[in-house]
């Protein structure tokens, strides 16, 4: 057996061990979220399952935690990884609003935000301040749980896949598995047709995985993935979806289970796919 084939067999073993451990840990918290209640403490525990699976896999394989790409990387890749989701989410919602699939700047949300901040007499300024706070303070608060996912997915899993697959395979396989890991929650707490929701969510997550793999390998760091993931969640869940007024078309076009964000992020993924090939990643 050649050294190269031995390394690939070892990588496949690590991948299999990781997925088995991840499935066992995740099953507990998927049951809690789906069968009991979708409370934040259960969700946070689930989000740390990939990191724990990665840690246990390294231990079982006689490897060290220091092997993970803990370095901060460079500020440009981290900043760009924050900005890319900001752009595709903003563009997606602007198109949805412009085409009448929902309205912009929900007055009830703006009033609620202003009241929450004690600025009921200045709702517009309250909304502006709340968006800034979500984009900075709430973003920072969310990084603790998001890091749990990213340590597992971008810190461990895609690096093992890289030992046995080219960039394209790494991006697609990691994206499909990352998508499937979310399916119990998507099916339980989504809306409308479950097959449509799963399709949209899978397209979105797989496209995101292309971009996130690009920045991870380019920077040799898991932190661009953390920045990207955090910005994606904040701008969809906390800012743009609450600011959208709804009509009969809205649920099919916005949020993570609608079609607009997946379409726009897929176009961006094509661009980063080409960049990855051009840069030899």
Could you walk me through the main structural features you see in this protein, from its secondary elements to its overall organization?
- The protein has 281 residues and is an all-alpha fold.
- It has one domain (71-278).
- Helix content is 76%, strand content 0%.
- Helix 5 (107-116) crosses helix 6 (123-162) and helix 6 (123-162) packs antiparallel against helix 9 (223-240).
- The protein starts with a helix and ends with a helix.
Strand and helix layout:
Layout: H1 3-36, H2 40-47, H3 49-60, H4 75-98, H5 107-116, H6 123-162, H7 167-189, H8 194-219, H9 223-240, H10 260-278
Report strand %.
under 5%
Low-confidence stretches: none
Which structural class do you get from the secondary structure elements?
mainly alpha
Q: What is the quaternary state of this protein?
A: single chain
Name the overall outline. globular
Helical content, roughly?
A: over 70%
Give the rounded overall mean pLDDT. 95
Rg, alpha carbons = 20 Å
Tell me the number of strands.
Answer: 0
Tally of helical segments? 10
Instruction: State the order of secondary-structure elements, H for helix, E for strand.
Output: HHHHHHHHHH
**Largest sheet at a glance?**
none
- Termini separation comes to 27 Å
Number of structural domains: 1
